[in-house]
């Protein structure tokens, strides 16, 4: 494709539809005998989205390859019966609710980091975090498999929307120094959505641990990043470049 940017300045590929052969990648992936994990959270009213997300993800996410779905929820009794593909498994993990949605958001990376250490590292080779309040409408295949994967936010390619600025509190751990987080005419770094990211278990552990530590330090200093764990995610990815980027096609922002 010549109509989109397909390579970052640090030479990481940017995946758009039409820039890869899924058949070739599937054949390579099958030879490696890998298992991929998906983490998602359904807390408070978000239990309503469980059935739609799980049915679509079971059908479209790495179809034909083994996937472990890890569903964190404070309402395990409300989960409907879900018929999973033979190669897929659903694990429901109870999680405590927080009084503020901001605290729910902030606790995600700490929970993921903790469970990677205690459980996930022994069960999967790659791990991806996805928001629950969507439904997949098309196949997401092994083109997303890489060491450290981030999805470019649709805010970056829809200028009519309000700009989702990086953290600008100079004492905040999610702060990006002036000039380092700007994206002039498609060059330099990108703004990534926290709705879909992942990679190898070891890389995701390092990312979530760093973000969790940054959030804890901010909390001790009475600071709250404007986009919560997404601000810390972007700070980390500025310093630790993703090895593969997914285009906004993979996760267009939803209207609230």
TrEMBL record:
Membrane topology term: Single-pass type II membrane protein
Co-factor requirement: Mn(2+)
Main localization (coarse): membrane
GO MF annotations in UniProt: hexosyltransferase activity; metal ion binding
Keyword Coiled coil: no
Record GO biological process: carbohydrate metabolic process
Record field: compositional bias (Basic and acidic residues): 163-172
SUPFAM superfamilies: Nucleotide-diphospho-sugar transferases
Cellular component GO terms, alphabetical: Golgi apparatus; membrane; vesicle
Subcellular location: Membrane
Record-linked InterPro entries: Glyco_trans_6, Nucleotide-diphossugar_trans
Region (Disordered): 160-184
Binding-site positions, an alpha-L-fucosyl-(1->2)-beta-D-galactosyl derivative: 230, 253
Active site positions, chain numbering: 230
Co-factor binding comment: Binds 1 Mn(2+) ion per subunit.
UniProt keyword terms in alphabetical order: Glycosyltransferase, Manganese, Membrane, Metal-binding, Signal-anchor, Transferase, Transmembrane, Transmembrane helix
Binding-site positions, Mn(2+): 131, 133
Binding site for UDP-N-acetyl-alpha-D-galactosamine: 41-43, 46, 131-133
Manganese listed as a keyword: yes
UniProt similarity note: Belongs to the glycosyltransferase 6 family.
PANTHER family registered for this protein in UniProt: GLOBOSIDE ALPHA-1,3-N-ACETYLGALACTOSAMINYLTRANSFERASE 1 (PTHR10462:SF49), GLYCOSYLTRANSFERASE-RELATED (PTHR10462)
Protein known as: BGAT2 transferase
Gene source species: Chloropsis cyanopogon
This protein's encoding gene: Abo2
């Amino acid at each position: 494709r010549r109509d989109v940017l397909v390579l970052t300045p640090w030479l990481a590929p940017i995946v758009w539809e039409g820039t890869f052969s899924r058949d070739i990648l599937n054949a390579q992936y099958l030879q490696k005998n890998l298992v991929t994990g998906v983490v998602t959270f359904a807390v408070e009213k978000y239990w309503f989205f469980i059935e739609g997300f799980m049915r679509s993800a079971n059908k479209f996410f790495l179809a034909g390859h083994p996937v472990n779905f890890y569903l964190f929820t404070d309402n395990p009794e409300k989960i409907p019966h879900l018929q999973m593909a033979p190669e897929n498994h659903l694990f429901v993990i109870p999680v405590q609710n927080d009084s503020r949605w901001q605290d729910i958001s902030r606790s995600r990376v700490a929970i993921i980091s903790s469970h990677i250490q205690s459980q996930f590292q022994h069960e999967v080779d790659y791990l991806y975090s996805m928001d629950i309040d969507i439904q997949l409408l098309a196949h997401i295949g092994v083109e997303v498999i890489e060491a450290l994967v981030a999805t470019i936010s649709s805010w970056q390619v829809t200028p009519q929307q309000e700009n989702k600025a990086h953290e600008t509190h100079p004492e905040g751990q999610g702060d990006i120094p002036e000039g380092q987080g700007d994206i002039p005419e498609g060059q330099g770094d990108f703004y990534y959505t926290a709705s879909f990211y992942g990679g190898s278990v070891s890389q995701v552990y390092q990312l979530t641990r760093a973000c969790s530590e940054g959030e804890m330090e901010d909390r001790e200093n009475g600071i709250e990043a404007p986009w919560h764990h997404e601000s810390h995610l972007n700070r980390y990815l500025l310093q630790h470049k993703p090895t593969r980027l997914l285009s906004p096609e993979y996760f267009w922002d939803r209207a609230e």
